[in-house]
Structures are given as structure tokens and as C-alpha cells.
């Protein structure tokens, strides 16, 4: 996970496994498609994932390259988040969220969603270009 702080884009931990980020516009369209076609979607579970897997480091570097070229990339050990997490519920939440994504091994499982409800259209790079 990343945070923009001053002149830095910070990634917490290693997050070695990519995730399939999805633009909210694509997500909303897929949800609307589900609502509009109850005969195809009732009593089913659909996984919504983006077009391509990307690590948080790659996402941060893409953000810097395209939209925030004056920013610098930094990585902070996830263990350092434990310190403010002791004193703040908000930082505890951030720590738990980052720990989750650092350990998560997301598997692509949106084939059914794409067949029934449509495929996302916006890549992460296109999303950043729109900022």
C-alpha cells in the first residue's frame, strides 16, 4: 500500500505479489450491469478485478512517472508501522491493512464476471493519466 507524504510516495513493506486493481468507474459499470441483468446475476457471487496485476511498487512508480514527476519513491518497513499503531487506532488499521496486502497472494478469478458482466476497460496507467 502506498501513501503520498510531502515530496514522497511511500510504500509500506515489500508486497511481493501483484494485485488486480480496478478503477472505480469500471467497478461501478460492472455493478450496474449486474443490477440491470438479474436473470443472469441473481444468487451468484462475482469477483471484480482489474485488467492487469500490479505490485504497489510498480503502481507507485507509475504514479510518479506519469502524474507526479517531482515526487520520490520510498519504501518503509512494515515493522515500523507497529510503533504508531500502538498509540493510534487509525495507524493500527493502516498496519493491519498493509500486513494483509504484504501477505496476500491474489489469484485471478474474474473470468466469469468478464463473461457475464463485461470486462474492465481502464488500465492502471490510463487511470493515472486521467488524474
Characterize the structure shown.
It is globular, with a radius of gyration of 17 Å. The chain has a three-stranded mixed beta sheet with strand order 1-2-3, covered by helices on one side. It has seven helices and three strands, in the order E-E-H-H-H-E-H-H-H-H. The chain has one domain (2-129). A hairpin with a 2-residue loop joins strand 1 (2-5) and strand 2. The protein has helices spanning 24-36, 38-41, 56-66, 82-87, 89-103, 111-117, 124-129, and strands spanning 2-5, 8-12, 72-76. It has 131 residues and is mainly alpha-helical.
Write a concise synopsis of the structure shown.
47% of the residues lie in helices and 11% in strands. It has 131 residues and is mainly alpha-helical.
How are the strands ordered across the major sheet?
1-2-3
Bin the helical content: 40-55%
From the spread of the alpha carbons, the general shape counts as: globular
Q: Please give the alpha-carbon distance between the first and last residues.
A: 19 Å
Structural class: mainly alpha
Could you name the ranges where pLDDT drops below 50 across 5 or more consecutive residues?
A: none
Mean pLDDT: 91
The rounded Rg comes to: 17 Å
What portion of residues belong to β-strands? 5-15%
Most strands sheet? 3 strands, mixed
Number of strands: 3
Q: What is the domain tally? A: 1
Q: Count of helical segments?
A: 7
Secondary-structure element order, N to C: EEHHHEHHHH
Question: What topology does this entry show?
Answer:
Elements: E1 2-5, E2 8-12, H1 24-36, H2 38-41, H3 56-66, E3 72-76, H4 82-87, H5 89-103, H6 111-117, H7 124-129
Parallel strand pairs: 2-3
Antiparallel strand pairs: 1-2
